[in-house]
Design brief:
CATH superfamily of the largest domain: ATP-grasp fold, B domain
Structural class: alpha+beta
Shape: globular
Number of domains: 3
CATH architecture of the largest domain: 2-Layer Sandwich
Distance between the termini: 46 Å
Largest sheet: 9 strands, antiparallel
């Protein structure tokens, strides 16, 4: 098979790494890819939103299967464009990707189908939102409705902060048109857990749980980021939690989308909050999380092509989805200053130390080749250093050990990824 992966981050590097393990695949393309992906796939200089060029490339190179990693092209309708040209593609159609593309839509869906989530109201007017804020308890959560690179969520502790947040999202348009509509949501407390799933429109198969670290600094301080590290499985995702979610959240979401005439095929990411009142949905994503993919996919036993084809063909019920009885931890190496401002173009050393090691991974998120062919930094999140081990404690020690193997100017990381596992006896 010839496979095309669309995207350029650590998530796509993890996907390409899994695809490369499949004995069914002998050629991988990635558009646009990055310097790390280039060791496994032929990188193609086509942007993820250049749908016509991507279709033309897939046809010209007789691509058998396309995997879309990123949210923007999915919400933009890339799957519909590929399908219209008779091309096999993994991911939700535009009318289903709205599950991530509009937080207002997903909240209304959960309310309609009684899927547990936080209380909320949607607003298209800043004035109405400000009036509403006078009536609610603090803290409160403000969410830009559309895509905002994982950063369009503000947790406001006071009324003053909340009013400033409304101005930021709806008037100053910090997140662009994503802030034309805003969700004001009850602040939930508890442990956050991420659960990825494969879906074929009717059947859902749950992957191993994971737990993200969104804040930029140690101790969950600083600004929200796309994710500074992750671990899998989450010790807080118990059998009881799984049973509740299987009954009230997972299949209910798939059935709700089908009932709305928006059957979902691809990956649904469930962001859950384990509250005192039981698990509730924080958010949906319509694709693999990043860096969740970097800890979940290395643990998956199945051939990823078999699973994804089953989703597209509506035969996911025939797949016995299995994961290794181990653990994985990912520590993101970022550019100091991320997520606000940072410099790029610094040479990265030590990457060769990962060669030939089956239980260590260096997933490239923001890298490129400079004019001399040297791999240099090219983003806020640069590398996802991942290790597997017999348990979370071993995987964590190995991941942090491996962060010392590579270096670049302005290298920054959190030192407490997976610290929560120390709380579990």
């Amino acid at each position: 098979m010839k496979v095309l992966v669309v995207g350029s981050g650590g998530r796509e590097h993890a996907i390409v790494t899994s695809v490369a393990k499949s004995p069914r695949v002998d050629k991988i393309y990635c558009a646009p890819g990055n310097a790390g992906i280039a060791s496994l796939a032929e990188c193609v200089a086509i942007g993820a939103m250049e749908f016509d060029k991507l279709v033309a490339f897939a046809k010209e190179h007789a691509v058998d299967f396309t995997i879309v990693g990123m949210d923007d092209p999915l919400v933009g309708g890339i799957v519909d464009v590929f399908e219209a040209e008779g091309l096999k593609v993994f991911g939700p159609r535009k009318n289903a990707a709205i599950l991530e593309g509009s937080k207002a839509f997903s909240k209304d869906l959960m309310k309609k189908y009684h899927i547990p989530t936080a209380a909320y109201e949607n607003f298209t007017s800043a004035e109405d939102a400000l009036t509403y804020l006078e009536t609610v308890k603090m803290p409160i959560v403000l969410k830009a409705d559309g895509l905002a690179l994982g950063k369009g969520v503000l947790i406001c502790n006071t009324l003053e902060e909340a009013k400033a947040g409304v101005k930021e999202i709806m008037e100053d348009k910090k997140f662009g048109s994503a802030g034309n509509t805003m969700v004001v949501e009850e602040f939930m407390t508890g442990r956050e857990v991420s659960v990825l799933s494969y879906v074929d429109g009717k059947t859902i198969k749950i992957m191993s749980s994971a737990q993200d670290h969104k804040r930029a600094k140690d101790g969950d301080q600083g600004l929200n980021t796309g994710g500074m590290g992750n671990f899998s499985p989450s010790p807080f995702y118990t059998k009881e939690v799984d049973e509740f979610c299987q009954k009230h959240i997972y299949q209910a979401t798939v059935d709700a989308m089908a009932a709305e005439g928006r059957p979902f095929t691809g990956v649904i990411f469930f962001g859950l909050m384990l509250t005192e009142d039981g698990p509730k949905v924080l958010e949906y994503n319509a694709r693999f999380g990043d860096p969740e993919a970097q800890v979940v996919l290395p643990r998956m036993k199945n051939d990823i092509i078999d699973v994804m084809e089953a989703c597209v063909d509506g035969k996911l019920d025939t797949i016995d989805l299995q994961f290794e009885d181990n653990a994985a931890v990912c520590v993101v190496l970022a550019s100091d200053g991320y997520p606000v401002s940072y410099e790029k173009g610094f040479p990265i050393t030590g990457l060769e130390k990962f060669d030939g090691k089956d239980d260590y991974f260096c997933f490239h998120a923001g890298t490129k080749f400079d004019e001399n062919g040297t791999i240099v930094t090219n983003g806020g999140r640069v590398l996802g250093i991942t290790a597997t081990g017999k348990d979370l404690k071993e995987a964590r020690a190995k991941a942090y050990e491996a962060t010392e193997w590579v270096d670049f100017a302005n290298k920054y990381m959190r030192h407490d990824i997976g610290r929560a596992i120390d709380e579990v006896k």
